Amino acid sequence: MTVTGFVYALIAGVVPSLIWLFFWTREDTDQPEPRSLLMGCFLGGMCAVFLAIPAEKSAAALLSGPSMYAWWAGIEEVLKFVAVAAIALHSRHYDEPIDAMIYTIAVALGFAALENTLFVMGPLTSGSLSVSITTGNMRFIGATLVHVVSSGLIGFFLGLAFYRGRFAKFLAWAVGLAGAIAIHSAFNIAIVGAGVMDTLKAFGWIWGAVVIMIILFEEVKAVKPRLANPAATEV
After folding, report:
1. Which of 206, 189, 100, 195 shows the shortest CA–CA distance to 147?
2. pTM for this predicted structure
3. pLDDT digit string (tens) for 199-223?
């Protein structure tokens, strides 16, 4: 592949994810997160791809069919969470429930950006520009949003437990992770070997999940700290 081809693949993979990142960060306009931290999460998500590839190859050598796709989804969701935990969840800027959704989505989009770049590079290497454009567009409206919805779900549950104790936060993470893996696995299984109509149906329910994700943002914005002594507020 030429340098020009590589640059095109990188742009095709990264720019759409940055557009989505701008869209989702608009949900947090009251106390926006530092751009440096958001980009750190984004780059952390990209780095997670390099760990996911060998892990998924190992899983593919041992498994096949739906179980393999479930393991792949699990590997990616765990690695994305490790990235956001290492970069953002101990930051002083992690100071309100909505931040968990913002940071998990930023990492997810970084992961999707590099993953999309690698998918676009395949057709470009063989000289098929039209296929690479189609691949980029399809991943922009499909696979990228799977990463957003699945990781964002973990962020939602963490946001719900933001003011709770450690056990509640661990339980929230476990429930969110299980849901993320289920969504990610279902999408992978739905599109593998599927025809055009079945693929569009899968994209349709993912877009439905995006609408739900917007609603979940509003829900997590309403999370407030519990009163230390409710009786003290009684007249």
Report:
1. 206
2. 0.86
3. 777 778 788 988 999 999 999 999 9
